[in-house]
Design brief:
By secondary structure, the chain is mainly α. It is built from 6 helices and no strands. The longest helix is centred in the N-terminal third of the chain and has 19 residues. It is globular and about 35 Å long.
């Protein structure tokens, strides 16, 4: 059974898998705009993290989709502060939370 931190990582991957499945121009545009605000305002996360998201979201959509669910140190770090917050309805979020324990 995964520890609490790994459980959170697995849930995050599952959330982002749903985002990747639904990624379209509007969702990508919204995420880019959110990250641009983060970069401009210097908040709510450190500028280097916001810049990493900005760089990723400038990639072709196929690359963004692949990277969102990548189980790498970089993506685990980035997913902790996702510009896709709110993209998954609560009902689906709760299903993932209950399934991954």
């Amino acid at each position: 059974m995964p520890d609490g931190h790994r459980t959170a990582e697995l849930r995050s991957i599952a959330f982002h898998r749903l985002v990747a499945q639904r990624l379209d121009d509007d969702l990508l545009k919204s995420a880019r705009a959110r990250v641009d605000r983060w970069v401009e305002n210097g908040a709510p996360l450190p500028p280097p993290t916001a810049l990493r998201w900005q760089e990723l979201l400038r990639q072709p959509p196929t690359t963004v989709v692949r990277r969102l669910t990548e189980d790498s140190d970089e993506m685990r770090d980035l997913r902790q502060n996702t510009p896709f917050a709110g993209a998954i309805p609560d009902r689906e979020r709760w299903r993932i939370i209950s399934e991954i324990r």
